[in-house]
Amino acid sequence: MVNLKDVKLLIFDLDGTLFQTIGPETESVKMSLRDMGLEVDNLEEKVKGYIGKTTEESYKSLLPSDQLHRWEELEEKVLKYFNEAILKNGESFPGVIETLQALKQRGYKLALYSNAPIGYFEYVPDYLGITKFFDYAECVDENNLTKPVLINKIKTKLGELDAAVVGDRIQDIEAAKENGLISIGALYGYGKEEAEKADLTINEFSDLLKIFNIK
């Protein structure tokens, strides 16, 4: 694993790390299921449970066993309603914009990755006003890559810099480990017990400024 003092690249997951996903996602899924003639109990908890998983895994987890073949229909409807939902209650976690700006000023390269669908991945960072901070951004759906492979690709694109991965789910921690990188778990996100397994943890996004400070 790389040394913390040598890190020059920070790779961020989107949902549960930068973006408070649950409100808009739950609202758009609720409206989509209604259109499909379906209803799911404890919807918000189930949405929390799938954040960070692939799109197919996420939407199949909501559907009855005899309706699994309709997951792509659900995805299409969710994307249709999502823009409306995000305008109602979509926002980044506290301190995200200020912290990303400070990290850029300190000389770090920043990258963004996600399991989210392409349309979602393109829309959310723009809506949050954070696209300008990233030197590279790609989601797994763009080229059908896994998170570990995508992280390796990002490292290659940005000059093989020593890096750390910031995320709130076990997939982010494992992807960092497979690439020999430092993992940082966002305890404020949607997978606290998973995030606790990271090399380092943060209680709020701005804690990154205490960890990374290139002189």
Break the fold down into its secondary structure elements and pairings.
Elements: E1 9-13, E2 19-20, H1 22-35, H2 43-50, H3 55-60, H4 71-89, E3 91-92, H5 96-105, E4 109-114, H6 118-128, E5 136-139, H7 140-143, H8 147-157, E6 163-167, H9 170-178, E7 182-186, H10 192-195, E8 200-202, H11 208-211
Parallel strand pairs: 1-4, 1-6, 4-5, 6-7, 7-8
Antiparallel strand pairs: 2-3
Short description:
With 215 residues, the protein is α/β, with parallel strands linked by helices.
Overview of the structural elements:
The protein has helices spanning 22-35, 43-50, 55-60, 71-89, 96-105, 118-128, 140-143, 147-157, 170-178, 192-195, 208-211, and strands spanning 9-13, 19-20, 91-92, 109-114, 136-139, 163-167, 182-186, 200-202. It has 215 residues and is an alpha/beta fold. The strands form two sheets. A six-stranded parallel beta sheet has the order 5-4-1-6-7-8, with helices on both faces. The protein has a two-stranded antiparallel sheet with strand order 2-3. Strand 7 (182-186), helix 10 (192-195) and strand 8 (200-202) form a beta-alpha-beta unit. The longest helix has 19 residues, at 71-89. The radius of gyration is 17 Å and the shape is globular. The two termini are 22 Å apart. The mean pLDDT is 92.
